[in-house]
Amino acid sequence: MLSSRSGSLLSVCSAGEVRYGTVAVRGDIQLSVRYLPSDTALELTVHQCRNLAAADARRNKSDPYVKVYLLPDRSKSGKRKTKTKKHTLNPMFEEILKFPAALSELGGRTLWVTVWHSDMFGRNDFLGEVLLPLASITLDDSTAAASWHPLQERSDLHEEGSSGRGDVIVALKYAPPEEGDGSRRSRRSRGALHVMVKEAKHLVAVRSNGSADPFCKCYLLPDRKGSKQKTSVVRRTTSPRWTGTLLFSDVTLAELKERALELTVWDHSLTSSELLGGARFNNGSGQHQGKPAHWMDAEGAEASLWEQMLDRPGFWVEGSVPLRATLESGSAAIK
User: Fold this and answer.
1) Helix, strand, coil content of the chain in percent (nearest 5)
2) What is the pLDDT of residue 117?
3) CA gap 203, 264 in Å, rounded
4) pLDDT digits (tens, 9 = 90+) for 135-170
5) Which residues contact 324 (CB under 8 A, 6 or more apart)?
6) How far is CA 174 from CA 171, 195, 202, 312, 321, in A?
7) Rounded Cα distance, 50 and 335, in Å
8) Start-to-end Cα distance in the chain
9) DSSP for 152-204?
10) Are residues 118 and 126 in contact, defined by beta-carbon separation less than 8 angstroms?
11) Which domains does the chain have, with CATH numbers?
C-alpha cells in the first residue's frame, strides 16, 4: 500500500550533522514520476532501494530514508522525506511525495533525490543521490512506469541548512566629517557610513515556483532600535539587484571600529517574512568596548571588506560575501 506525504517533514540531520564520504556510495533507487492536473502537483513515488552501502559495517546494515527537493527550491518548506527503514540494505518504501507546481514551470526544474542512513545521534551518513531533470521526463497523469537509477556520489548542490545560501555583493564607504566650522555639532559633521547592497546571487528559493521576493534589512550594531534600514523588495527572483544607498549617519570612524553592520536577506510576505541568509561586517574581535560581544564575529570576506572600508575613508570598497545559514546570538537566526 502506498502512503502519501505532501507536507514538509523536519529531518534529524537538518538540526544536527551530516557526513559525506564515510560510506562508499553504491546501489540503486527505484522511482516513478507523474503530474496530476487535478492536484496541480508533481507526484514522485519512492518505491525501493537495493544493494545500499552498509553504514554499520560490522552488522552489515543501514537505516535508510530518502529526502527529495524540487530544485531550485532548497528551502525547509520545499523538502519531502520518507520514513526510515531499519536494519536493511534493500528498503521498501512505496511512498508518494507531492510537490505543488504548475505544469508550465516544471520544464526547467530538477528532482534532487538523496538517500541517507539515519543515525540515532543525528550524524546522518550520505548513501548516494540521483538528479532527475524533468525536461527529460514525459509528465502526464497516467500510471508512471517505475525506473531504476544508480546512486551517484555527492554533487555540488547544497541543501537548506548548509552553507549554500547564496552570496551578496555589497559596497561600503565611510564619509568623513565635513570640513568647516569645528564648533558645529550637526549629525553630518560626525561622518556617516554609506551602504550599497547591489545584488544577491543564488538565494534559496522558498516559493513553489522556485523563486522568492527578496529584500534586505541592515542594522548598525549594537543599536537595533534606531539604526534599521531596508532595501526595496524585488519580485520573483533568486538573484535580485537593488539600487540606492542606505545611510547610517552620526558615526565616527573610531566608533565603527567597535561596531558591526548586520545584513539579513528576507523573502517578503504580508504575513510573516522568511529569513534567507545573513552576514555581519566588523573587525571579528569578539569584543565591544572591551567586553565580549557575540555579534562581533565577522571572518573571511566579511572582516576583510570592513577593514578595507576603515582603511580608506572617503572611498567605496566592494566585495562578494557568502550568506551565512545562521547568525548565532544575534537578532536573526535561520532554523
Assistant:
1) 10, 40, 50
2) 93
3) 12
4) 888 887 676 789 999 999 887 655 544 446 788 999
5) 163, 165, 277, 278, 279, 280
6) 11, 9, 29, 8, 19
7) 33
8) 34
9) B---S---TTSS-S-EEEEEEEEEPPPSS-TT---SGGG-EEEEEEEEEESPP
10) no
11) 3-150 (2.60.40.150), 167-322 (2.60.40.150)
- Burial profile 180-209: b = 16 or more Cβ within 10 angstroms, e = fewer: eeeeeeeeebbbbbbbbbeebebbbbbbbe
Quick one: DSSP state of residue 103?
G
Burial class of 147 by CB neighbour count within 10 A (0 to 12, 13 to 18, 19+): middle
> For position 17, what pLDDT does the model report?
55
State how far the Cα of 273 lies from the Cα of 133, in Å rounded to an integer: 30
Query: Which three cell numbers, joined as nine digits, stand for 161?
Result: 541548512
pTM given for the model: 0.54
Tell me whether residue 221 is exposed, middle or buried, using C-beta atoms within 10 angstroms of its C-beta: 0 to 12, 13 to 18, 19 or more: buried
Report the run of H or E that residue 231 belongs to, with start and end. none
Phi, psi at residue 51, to the nearest 5°? 55, 40
> With a cut of 50, which residues of the chain have pLDDT below it?
4-16, 160-163, 179-184, 186-187, 329-335
User: Grid coordinates representing 251?
Assistant: 558615526
